[in-house]
Amino acid sequence: MNESIGAGIGLPGYDPQGFFCEIFGGAQGAPAPSPAIQERLKQLDTNDLSARAKAAEEELFNLGITFTVYTEREAIDRILPFDVIPRLIGAREWVGLDRGVKQRVTALNHFLHDIYHDQKIIKDGVVPSELINGNKNFRPQMVGLNLPHDTYVHICGIDLVRGADGAFRVLEDNARTPSGVSYVIENRHMMLRAFPDLTRDIGLRDVDEYGARLHKAMHEVAPVDIDEPQVVLLSPGTYNSAYFEHIFLAREMGVPLVEGRDLLVGEDDRVYMRTTAGLAPVHAIYRRIDDDFIDPEVFREDSMLGVPGLMRAYWKGNVTLANAVGTGVVDDKAVYAYMPRVIKYYLDEDPIIENVETHICGEAEGLRYTLDNLDKLVVKPVGESGGYGILIGPQASKEELAQFREKLKADPANFISQPVISLSVCPTLVDGRIEPRHVDLRPFCITGRDSWVLPGGLTRVAIKRGSLVVNSSQGGGSKDTWVLTE
């Protein structure tokens, strides 16, 4: 006879191993979000759960909900592994997260406007000049350009982690082209189809507003003299790893999905879209193309992905780009270390969500501390994303530590270090068993005239036992994130 998942207080065989659990709470007294949902989970049968999980993954693949992994020999379409046991966030806790994300995005926009105008934060000695003006993502072409509502970061993903004390902290900011929101929405749709018995009548915040909210924000930041602005989503094309998401978001907003070859800039420095009925004006572009490739007249001359003359139209105020060119400065992990000071400087507030403790290796004290404690720290290159180039000291061999030590000495400014966070865990279905797996959270914030945060966000899960790396490119998966209404 098959045993149900639940018996007694917890899940049979499930041991959070001292980590904060996103369903059952923490050993230090942090409360669990919903005892009622705990009870529902306990009544699910493991064989039935595994069968429904397999059917859900097959449906995701058949629907084309994939990302592409590129190797030296081939491109492989994969689904982002989807775990059917949700992550829970209580209503009261979400209020604080919502406020904290909005505060951070507000500060990011103030910061970006300042560094591309008067650079007061540099002149006042809050942030060092070389960190900004020497940053590879700083775009001199943006200096002096005024944007509608001073909004640079229209779509932002803030990566959060929770430690053993149950408190969320910001791990990094994603202000260039944050991805993953399509999985948030599709994961919810999948759960509603596959687990109506689990989701029924429990009071979940809805996630289906995202497309309408994004479209509204794009209208708000379009050139002011346009009554009905035309919005498009600009994609690099089918070979991009996130192409499914581009299709998904264009559909959710109800706007055309275009590539660079579909657009042109006319002699009047306005952007037009090629259609079967002729040229049609375009006023706002949600672009999923990096700065370097967006306009071959200004950036990379060999780019076949962008639109010649697009920066001209941008400078004339004839088109809005979301996110703005040059936002990559705040994705830099060294800039991240200064964010508590940035928030205080512009808003005169303390951060609602604190940073993870961070040591800047480009500073003598930070480098010395990192070298002295390399086997205890996580060390990250400041300009990388996707989990690449990271050293996790406690899991590294002596040889790996020695090699990384030389990298640090050779180019210290390229690295920051942080303590190993005891990332929270969530019950996860692995080979028919329920086991703890580490998770993070990426809430998505949309900003036009003001900001709105999608309730929940992308919960990424490290599928490999003991792993702290949740990135999809490194084998991570995702969960549905449930924000409760009460």
Give a nutshell description of this structure:
With 486 residues, this protein is of the alpha+beta class. It has helices at residues 35-42, 46-62, 91-115, 120-123, 129-133, 181-194, 196-199, 210-220, 243-253, 291-294, 310-315, 333-336, 339-347, 364-372, 398-410; strands spanning 66-70, 75-79, 82-89, 155-162, 168-174, 231-234, 257-258, 263-265, 271-275, 278-282, 284-287, 320-322, 359-360, 377-381, 391-392, 415-419, 425-430, 433-442, 444-447, 451-453, 458-461, 477-483. Among the domains are: 224-318, Rossmann fold (3-Layer(aba) Sandwich); 359-419, Dna Ligase, domain 1.
Describe this structure in words.
The protein has helices spanning 35-42, 46-62, 91-115, 120-123, 129-133, 181-194, 196-199, 210-220, 243-253, 291-294, 310-315, 333-336, 339-347, 364-372, 398-410; strands at 66-70, 75-79, 82-89, 155-162, 168-174, 231-234, 257-258, 263-265, 271-275, 278-282, 284-287, 320-322, 359-360, 377-381, 391-392, 415-419, 425-430, 433-442, 444-447, 451-453, 458-461, 477-483. By secondary structure, it is an alpha+beta fold. Among the domains are: 224-318, Rossmann fold; 359-419, Dna Ligase, domain 1 (2-Layer Sandwich), CATH 3.30.1490.270. The protein has a 5-stranded mixed beta sheet. Strands 5-4-19-20 form a 4-stranded antiparallel beta sheet. A hairpin with a 5-residue loop joins strand 8 and strand 9 (271-275). Helix 3 packs across helix 13 (339-347) and helix 8 (210-220) crosses helix 9. The longest helix has 25 residues, at 91-115. The relative contact order is 0.18.
